[in-house]
Amino acid sequence: MITILLNNRVVNIDETISISQLLHHENYPQMGIAVAINQHIISKTNWEEQLLQDGDKILIIQATQGG
Question: What predicted TM-score, i.e. pTM, was given to this entire model?
Answer without folding.
Answer: 0.87
